[in-house]
Amino acid sequence: MPLFINRDQIFAHQVHLLEHKLRSKEERILELETENALLHLRLAECLGKLRRDHKDVAEAQKRCQHQKNITKSTQTALAKLLSEVQVLKHDLRDVFAVYVGFATELEGQSKQLLERVVSATSDVQGDSEDVRALQAKVEALERSLQEEKERCRTERLRRKLLHNALVELRGNIRVHCRVRPVLPFDAGFGQSGSVSGSTLSEEVVHAVNDVKDTQEDVFEEVKPLLTSLLDGYNVCIMAYGQTGSGKTHTMIGSQNEDPMGPGGAPLQGVIPKAATELFRLISEKPADSHTVEVSVVEVYNNEVFDLLSKDGEGSGAKRDVITTSTGTSEVTSLTYEPVRSSAEVMQVISAVLRLRARSPTLVHRDSSRSHLIVTLTVTSRSPNVLALARRLQSARQELHRPAQKEWWSPRCRRAASGRRGAEEQPASPASSPLHSPCHSPCPSPRPSISQAPVRTKLQLVDLAGSECVGMSGVTGAALWETSCINRSLSALSDVLGALAEQRPHVPYRNSKLTHLLQDSIGGDAKLLVMLCISPTQRFVAESLQSLGFGTRARQVQREPARRKNAALKIK
Ligand SMILES: Nc1ncnc2c1ncn2[C@@H]1O[C@H](COP(=O)(O)OP(=O)(O)OP(=O)(O)O)[C@@H](O)[C@H]1O
């Protein structure tokens, strides 16, 4: 069969083949492109990973470097430590060697000491008898020393009592000196200067016996005078000294706490303690035999004020001092307040103390600018024992003289009949019939067991402080006050001078103060001057001046103090 193949068919066939080839080629291309894309993706992935790995490697390298550095510094420190450990080991070996040597030495010494102790113990045991004997001797010596001390103390006390008695017998004025302690306000003066290397606030004045004068000690010196007061003597206790030296503290008590209060007893000064002692002594006497009155006077700017007067309008009433016909000094129209206990005395005094003139000075913040005189007047109506004895003796003599018996008037007999009659007599001496002259013809002395009531005075004086105007820094009215104080104190000193030199004229009237105290200073009173002294360098001149005043007072020789009832006449 003829093969007849159409050309178109061949062509179509070829086209078909080509198309098929093309299609497979395209598929292959697509396949390859896909593969290429996948490879790209993987490449990108690998690149990313590579980058990350690079970073990790850099960090690892950094860490590695850091680690290397640490290792290096650790090695350096370790090497240093090792060398130090070596040194320490060396030192430790040395110390240990020393310790061993020391321990060995100590052990040797301990052994030696132990041996010595053992031998000493055996020695002591051997000497125990001697030791006991020595101990007994020491005890005996201590005992006798104690006895000597006691004897010495008693002797000192006796000497003091004898001295006081001698002073009184000679009629001298007793003078005591009290050095107050350094107080906080003294320091305030010390900074401004110095004298020969010592500060002004330095303590330079010391009591010879260096004893602390407590309020109790001071009162012990005063106490016997109160017995004298009831025995019929006038008594005056006067505090003298520079401003701020402790006069008010001595006479009244401390101003910081209430010295009059129940808790203030140790701080109380002479006045409250004297009032207590006086009423204690009176309580031992027959009931109602003594009465006490108090008066309080202030001498301010050379004027006398009655601080108990009701008409003083809060500052006391002005009064005069006169000399009576008997030559004694007296304050006119003075108020006397009857008191029955020490509490009443202190009540009266406390009430008027606030009236006292005070003002601050550079030296003392609460300075008293006046002289204060508290007087306790004791009126005693006790029958006089001496008179009774004389009366009995006289009566006995009369009995032995019967012829004269009828000469006795009935009144004389009544007077002799006993104590009762005496107690029934009125208090006033002027109105007492037993003391009015007996007009009956009695040739023999008329003995009387009664006596006029005896009045004795206890004057307690807190003087204003002597002071240097420059130092106290006062001006104006206060300057006038200071000048009045100084003038009255120098008048007091002049009076003592005149008395000491026994001059015919004693200038009592140069000042109201001396006129008022005339009986106590120059009269027959027992007078105790309490000198108050500041202890510091700053006030040395004032302290010497006060001591000079005390010396002057001690040189005064008066008539010995007289009892008020010694003048009683046995008629
Ligand atoms: N012995 C003492 N112990 C303790 N304190 C004292 C003593 N003496 C004085 N004082 C104190 O010193 C201060 C001054 O004393 P005080 O008022 O008694 O002086 P003064 O001499 O009365 O002075 P002035 O004359 O200025 O009134 C007070 O605060 C007082 O308490």
Automatic annotation (TrEMBL):
Q: Which residues form a coiled coil?
A: 15-42, 124-158
Alphabetized Pfam families for the sequence: Kinesin
Q: Where is there biased composition of kind Low complexity? A: 426-439
Q: Which SMART domains does the record match to this protein?
A: KISc
* Transmembrane regions: none
Q: Where in the cell is it found?
A: Cytoplasm, Cytoskeleton
| Keywords linked to the UniProt accession | ATP-binding, Coiled coil, Cytoplasm, Cytoskeleton, Motor protein, Nucleotide-binding
Per the record, the major location class is cytoplasm
PROSITE patterns for the chain = KINESIN_MOTOR_2 (PS50067)
Q: Per its UniProt record, what SUPFAM superfamilies does this chain match? A: P-loop containing nucleoside triphosphate hydrolases (SSF52540)
The keyword Transcription belongs to this UniProt entry's keyword annotation: no
Annotated Gene Ontology cellular component terms: microtubule cytoskeleton
Kinesin motor domain mapped to chain residues: 172-556
Can you tell me which residues bind ATP?
241-248
GO annotations under biological process? microtubule-based movement
Q: Where is this region: Disordered?
A: 397-450
Q: Which GO terms describe its molecular function?
A: ATP binding; microtubule binding; microtubule motor activity
Q: Which family does it belong to?
A: Belongs to the TRAFAC class myosin-kinesin ATPase superfamily. Kinesin family.
User: What is the protein name given in its UniProt record?
Assistant: Kinesin motor domain-containing protein
**Origin species:** Megalops atlanticus (Tarpon)
